[in-house]
Design goal:
Largest sheet: none
CATH topology: MetI-like fold
Order of helices and strands: HHHHHHHHHHH
Number of domains: 1
Helix content: over 70%
CATH class: Mainly Alpha
Number of strands: 0
Length: 277
Amino acid sequence: MSNAALRAPARDPAWLGRVFWLSAAAVLLWPLFVATEFQPWLLFAPQNTRVTGQFLATFLPPEVSAEFLGMVAREAWRTVAIATAGMTLALVVAIPLTLLSTRVLSVSALSGRMARGPFWLRQALRWTLIVLRSVPELVWALVFVRVVGLGPTAGVLAIALTYGGMLGKVYGEILESGETHATETLLRNGGSRLQAFFYGLLPTNAAELTSYTVYRWECAIRSSVVLGFVGAGGLGQQMDNSMKMFKGGEVLSMLVVFVLLVALADRVSAGLRRSLG
């Protein structure tokens, strides 16, 4: 074989396709950036950089008094409590809706086509899950702050509804995409839906279900801080109060605590998922 045949091509044979798709992506994305008035160069305008520097200068030095740090520790714990209580209620919402809307647990679907009544019930429950997860938890929090007043209760309820919809949707997809032979066998031989779930679906999908639940708990901790900015309690509400009072040192201290809190939750979540995997 000649050296010319063994020589590597001088030009990437796929370059034309890459250029085409990159150009197509640019053409499609450009109207989106125009619609959002995306102008990142404004960040570096002299007036804006001066204002940014003045704002960041107020963050130093951080507030480290014992009384303040004690309050931050209490609010950080309350933030975790809001997320955990919200996730618990979300499970109360998600699990029944999942069991009732999952096709593989339908007895009438064993014949190949689900009966009209169960079909429309399943569709109604799925639309309920869509509505719950379509409304952001921030909007739910604004609603509940007006109903139950300022405080953690609004945050708990907001997380419960939005995350209940998210969990219900993903739980259903996990259960329907896994191995269903044992579940169908139990239903065909007279087993109840709960028996089919506990002895057929759950053993084969428990690790994935638990892993996703732990991940959502980690996300709920982040959400609970954001919800505090609309009066739903926790670390976010204290951070909002400090920002309104232009106490940058307190804001910096709370940001550091929040980063540590999220890092700790991430480690706990990763450890649990690794043990389940």
